[in-house]
Amino acid sequence: LSLLTTSTLARLGELQPHSRFDVRRFRMNIIVDAAEPGLVENDWIGRQLVLGGARIQVTLPDPRCVMTTLAQDELPQDNDILRALVRHNTVQVG
Question: Which of 46, 55, 53 is nearest to 94 (CA)?
């Protein structure tokens, strides 16, 4: 199960305004409308989330790949999407 917050998309857009951090690029199962600013999912690792009636254990950050850079619908190809993720949101795992 993959999830992403609207605050992460907004923060990445602030850090790299010439790219379009559209939710469609990330192909997530769940998009959380988060009021807290920043890359809040990183603080959820090791915690439980309650979504509706389901409890979900957050075990690791969602790895990103080249798929985020590909053109789709009216979104152009943008290799800087993945570069920004690496530059601004690298999380050590393990």
Answer: 46
SS3 5: strand
Residues 26-77: tens digit of each pLDDT: 989 999 999 999 999 989 989 999 988 999 999 988 888 889 999 999 999 9
Q: Measured between alpha carbons, how far is 53 from 46 in angstroms, rounded to an integer?
A: 19
* Assessment of whether the complete model's pTM goes beyond 0.70: yes
Tokens of 23: 């939710």
Q: Where are the alpha helices (DSSP H) in 1-94?
A: 6-15, 80-88
Residue identified by tokens 């690029």 is 25
Please check whether residue 56 is in contact with residue 48, taking contact to mean a CB–CB distance below 8 angstroms.
Answer: yes
Rounded to whole angstroms, how far apart are CA atoms 71 and 59?
30
R_g of the chain computed on alpha carbons = 13
90, exposed or middle or buried, with CB in 10 Å at 0-12, 13-18, 19+? exposed
